[in-house]
Amino acid sequence: MKLKKSLKKNQDKFLELILSLTYYLKLFSSLKRFLEYVSLVSKYFINQEFSLLIPLDEKGQISSDNICFSDKKLGDQTLLDLQEFCKNHGMFNNFKLKNINIVEEYLEEKFDSLILKTHKIISRNKCRGFFYVFYKKFDHQKFELENKNINIIVNLLAVGIENYLLLKIN
Question: In what order do the strands lie in the sheet with 68-69?
Fold first, then answer.
């Protein structure tokens, strides 16, 4: 009986989060606010230490103003450090998809006590950004269980970023 209640509670929480994300997706007017909201929700939706969103703009360049980090304590300094790293490596004006490996090496070194999982945000066969989820090393199996939840978030991110880019064109 307890297991049934626990499953029901998790399903209700899942449904509530999905409804809030889809509602926000319909109404958002600022890409930054949408990404911040998704980042915040991801903390409750995925068993993680924190996550990082690196969106790409319409030209496929890193959208530095829209990078979001889900952990507010680490976030401000981490974002500054990441922006400085990308700036020093010429990634804001001349980013190529293959350069993301350099960013990922930097993140793995900076957070060497954690496991980093990369998820490409794809829409209309174009990469629209990257969603990184960080786990404790001893939680190795967690990320296997979280794949469905992560896929939902990544797909919502793809729709949100694509909608924003399409609105920007018009």
Answer: 68-69, 50-55, 126-136, 114-123
Q: Is the pLDDT of residue 5 over 80?
A: no
141 phi and psi angles, rounded to 5 deg: -80, -15
Q: How far apart are CA 114 and CA 97, in angstroms?
A: 24
CB within 8 Å of 106: residues ≥ 6 apart: 82, 85
Q: Alpha-carbon distance 52 to 123, whole Å? A: 19
Q: Are 122 and 134 in contact (CB under 8 A)?
A: no
Token pair 């304590």 in the structure block, residue: 73
- From the list 154, 157, 137, the residue with the least C-alpha distance to 49 is 137
3-state secondary structure of 116: strand
Question: Three-class SS string for 123-163?
Answer: ECCEEEEEEEEEEEHHHCCHHHHCHHHHHHHHHHHHHHHHH
The Cα 71–Cα 134 span in angstroms is 11
pLDDT digits (tens, 9 = 90+) for 19-68: 777 776 666 677 888 888 888 888 877 778 889 999 998 888 988 888 98
Per residue in 59-77, pLDDT tens? 889 888 889 888 877 778 8
